[in-house]
Amino acid sequence: MAQGPQDIEDLIGLLSKLPGLGPRSARRAVLHLIKKRKQHLIPLADAMTRVGQSAKECLNCGNIDTADICPICQDERRANGEICIVEDVADLWAMERSGVFKGRYHVLGGTLSALDAVGPEDLRIPKLLDRVTSEAVTEVILALSATIDGQTTAHYIADQLPDVTVTSLAQGVPVGGELDYLDDGTITAALRARRSL
Amino acid sequence: MIEWQDEGALLASRVHGETSMIIEVFTPSRGRHAGVVRGGASRKMAATLQPGSQVSVTWKARLDDHLGSFTIEPLRSRSAQVMSDRLALSGLGAVCALLCQSLPEREKHEPLYNRTVQLLDLLGQNDVWPLAYLHWEMSLLDELGYGLDLSACAVRGVNEDLSYISPKSGRAVSKEGAGEWANRLLPLVPVMKGEGDASGGEIARALGTTGYFIENRLFGTQTSREVPAARQRLIDAIARLD
Question: Does residue B12 sit at the A interface (CB-CB below 8 Å)?
């Protein structure tokens, strides 16, 4: 394959390291950006520079924002005594997309993992315990993955918070899901979490 | 192309690239075996590739010492049963972590495999599971060459009043045989011999004794790795059962 100038090759190399992109798709993206220089390339470069300089983790909850304390933590209307625990920022954004939860969040930064040697001290659990006392939290909602590691983390956190109501998200049939296509683990979980109508 | 098929218990899975997973499966004929599952990071495969799942696997590779790739078919899932059960969850974590970190790769351990599957099938039955786990740990030590000999006193040869275990040989020692060395020996908790009280506290005490050998023989200086924290979480959960 013909090689472009080094700067362009560097850009292709960097883009190809992003999730969902490989060398070919990165090459296509770079060609597109160069063709649409004014509409896409320059604004993208500017936006990336700005985000590179300003993006930081919220000191309180671990969300990503441009301020030390993110807007969710600053919003007094959200200080309703509920904290939703999520694994990472993508989960927080997913919860926010639903618009249902009106409390605050806490991003752990992962889950406990025996095999990867991730312990409580590697996550933001000590900060969570501080917040529960300092923010007069009445309910902690565990929105962690329905995986062995996710649920191990959930039980560990529940053990650390004996004086607070700790709840977790339900597990079962997804909206629009058909039983025939579900794995037996999901059906078991759904049957165990059944409720009366 | 080398190819084999077997059944096994899935011990661990980790993401490899964007779409694949590297898994470790404990099989009866080939022991702990790793391989890539192409497309394993998909949502469709997520439930199958949880630790503890019983799966049918086909492994293929061009050469035997390659990592190779697995084709997986689920046989039965255990994760849904344990998700809401603290003890079962920590038990599953401890079993998988201990096997992953102590078993040599590709070494057949069929008796241990059979005991492991029995133990995993008991998950959720919290009245019998802790005791089954204790005996499983003893068989893990046995299988890896550090078995405890609780049949007779190492000093006097008698099989009565056995109260201690030598940390050096793993053999039982009677109260009389221990003499002034008693404080240097590990307690032989009766539940280890299938006798006496099988309460959570006693089982946790017995796990302290097996833990000594796990820590000093299977881990520690042998492997430069630490005993998985999941084991201690399980012991804490068992101790709270009383």
Answer: yes
Burial (0-12, 13-18, 19+ Cβ within 10 Å), A84: buried
Angle between helices A6-15 and A23-35 (to 10 degrees): 120
Contact A189 B83 (CB under 8 A): yes
CA B190 to CA A128: how far, in whole Å?
42
Q: Is B69 on the interface with A (CB under 8 A)?
A: no
User: Would you call B83 and A183 a contact, using CB atoms and an 8 Å cutoff?
Assistant: no
Whether A192 sits inside 8 A of B84 (CB atoms) is yes
Q: What is the pLDDT of residues A104-153, one digit of tens each?
A: 999 999 999 877 888 888 999 999 999 999 998 999 999 999 899 999 99
Q: At residue B128, what is the residue type?
A: V
Whole-complex ipTM: 0.82
CB-nearest partner of A115 from B12, B86, B92: B12
Best residue in A152, A167, A178 for a mutation probing chain B (most B CBs within 10 Å): A152
Residue positions counted in chain B: 242
pTM: 0.86
Question: A108 phi and psi, to 5 degrees?
Answer: -75, -35
Q: 3-state DSSP call for residue B241?
A: coil
Nearest alpha carbon to residue B133 among B65, B56, B191:
B191
- Across the A:B interface, residue pairs with CB atoms under 8 Å apart total 72
- In terms of C-beta density within 10 A (0-12 exposed, 13-18 middle, 19 or more buried), how is residue B80 classed? buried
The residue type at B67: L
> How far does the CA of residue A117 sit from the closest CA of chain B (Å)?
8
C-alpha pair distances (Å), A70 with each of A15, A47, A80, A105, B140:
28, 19, 17, 11, 50
Angstrom distance (rounded) from CA B143 to CA B138? 9
Three-state SS annotation for A54-114: HCEECCCCCCEECCCCCHHHHCHHHCCCEEEEECCHHHHHHHHHHCCCCCEEEECCCCCEC
